[in-house]
TrEMBL record:
<dbReference type="GO" id="GO:0051301">
    <property type="term" value="P:cell division"/>
</dbReference>
<dbReference type="InterPro" id="IPR030379">
    <property type="entry name" value="G_SEPTIN_dom"/>
</dbReference>
<keyword id="KW-0963">Cytoplasm</keyword>
<protein>
    <submittedName>
        <fullName>Septin-5</fullName>
    </submittedName>
</protein>
<dbReference type="Pfam" id="PF00735">
    <property type="entry name" value="Septin"/>
</dbReference>
<keyword id="KW-0342">GTP-binding</keyword>
<dbReference type="InterPro" id="IPR016491">
    <property type="entry name" value="Septin"/>
</dbReference>
<dbReference type="GO" id="GO:0005525">
    <property type="term" value="F:GTP binding"/>
</dbReference>
<keyword id="KW-0132">Cell division</keyword>
<feature type="domain" description="Septin-type G">
    <location>
        <begin position="18"/>
        <end position="291"/>
    </location>
</feature>
<keyword id="KW-0547">Nucleotide-binding</keyword>
<keyword id="KW-0131">Cell cycle</keyword>
<comment type="similarity">
    <text>Belongs to the TRAFAC class TrmE-Era-EngA-EngB-Septin-like GTPase superfamily. Septin GTPase family.</text>
</comment>
<dbReference type="GO" id="GO:0005737">
    <property type="term" value="C:cytoplasm"/>
</dbReference>
<feature type="site" description="Important for dimerization">
    <location>
        <position position="140"/>
    </location>
</feature>
<dbReference type="InterPro" id="IPR027417">
    <property type="entry name" value="P-loop_NTPase"/>
</dbReference>
Length: 321
């Protein structure tokens, strides 16, 4: 026994000491329950100071990017969670290119990271790259709206998109099944690349494989959010109390909230970060380097031409003398 079997423990201890960070973006038309869902997911009130605009104020409103950061701790593990909200998306009368501020924001974070990484002090780089974007789809339509298609197509090469059917309590189970099928078909038809759950390892146990299958089959998750705790069958649960009954956020028979939370926090957070780093950021980096090389070779070409002209001038001067 040499002792390298302790390597995983060493890595574990170091990561716990350093803490973790995760940046989650939420996007979709206002009123679809984004803030309520985020509060339900992380059991915090991230939107205490939110100011809602009236219809008149929203007419000319441009899409804003608002960041909320909270430090959460669970069993000694620290997580710095950043929520990037996009109020105003899809709210104006004219929504042409309303996703532009969002794509610009994602690019800026990549640019900042690229600059920090190429700088002298690479020790304490702050990673503000967006690891996942929850995109809220209205439950009231017949599938994706043009703005949904355009948004996802503009972002799918830059960020892991997880589409969600918002306010799923507005639909009965058969309607949810139909809407899910339709959205899946449209995602395929329009060539949208949403976040793909990684393949399950063949040596995993059967229970894990079953959970993984169910997760994949449930996408796009139909979710419900609530800021209130109600009493259902003698238990206090997060839910929505209607005159005809209670919708429980964490009841898997009512919606996919638990599946989304497990995926986002318990099973796939690390993969979302890996894909951001290895696929989306690498694409950005490759493009940047290509551009830099191109402009460098252009400058070199200019220099060579300048040198040639200087030589010609010198020759002409000599001939004139
Ligand atoms: P946001 O503008 O997208 O952040 O939406 P909010 O979270 O502010 O929610 C807008 C309204 O929808 C509020 O009245 C919420 O109580 C309600 N709401 C939020 N989530 C749900 C849900 O899952 N189902 C239903 N029926 N209403 C919801």
């Amino acid at each position: 026994y040499v002792g390298f079997a302790t390597l995983p423990n060493q890595v574990h201890r170091k990561s716990v000491k350093k803490g973790f960070d995760f940046t989650l973006m939420v996007a979709g038309e206002s009123g679809l329950g984004k803030s309520t869902l985020v509060n339900s997911l992380f059991l915090t009130d991230l939107y205490k100071d939110r100011k809602l605009l009236n219809a008149e104020e929203r007419i000319n409103q441009t899409v804003e990017i608002v960041k909320h950061t909270v430090d959460i701790e669970e069993k000694g593990v620290k997580l710095k969670l950043t929520i990037v909200d996009t109020p105003g998306f899809g709210d104006a009368v004219n929504n042409t290119e309303c996703w532009k501020p969002i794509t610009d924001y994602i690019d800026q974070q990549f640019e900042q990271y690229f600059r920090d990484e190429s700088g002298l002090n690479r020790k304490n780089i702050q990673d503000n790259r967006v690891h996942c974007c929850l995109y809220f789809i209205s439950p009231f339509g017949h599938g994706l709206r043009p703005v949904d298609v355009e948004f996802m197509k503009a972002l799918h090469e830059k960020v892991n998109i997880v589409p969600l059917i918002a306010k799923a309590d507005c639909l009965i189970p058969s309607e949810i099944r139909k809407l899910k099928e339709r959205i899946r078909e449209e995602i395929d038809k329009f060539g949208i690349k949403v976040y793909q759950f990684p393949e399950c390892d063949s040596d995993e146990d059967e229970e894990f494989k079953q959970q993984d299958r169910e997760l994949k089959e449930s996408a796009p998750f139909a979710v419900i959010g609530s800021n209130t705790v109600v009493e259902a069958k003698g238990q206090r649960v997060r839910g929505r109390l209607y005159p005809w009954g209670i919708v429980e956020v964490e009841n898997q028979a009512h919606c996919d909230f638990v599946k989304l939370r497990n995926m986002l926090i318990r099973t796939h957070m690390h993969d979302l970060k890996d894909v951001t780093c290895d696929v989306h950021y690498e694409n950005y980096r490759a493009q940047c380097i290509q551009q830099m090389t191109r402009s460098l070779s252009d400058s070199l070409l200019c220099l060579v031409q300048l040198r040639r002209m200087q030589e010609m001038l010198q020759k002409m001067q000599q001939q004139m003398q």
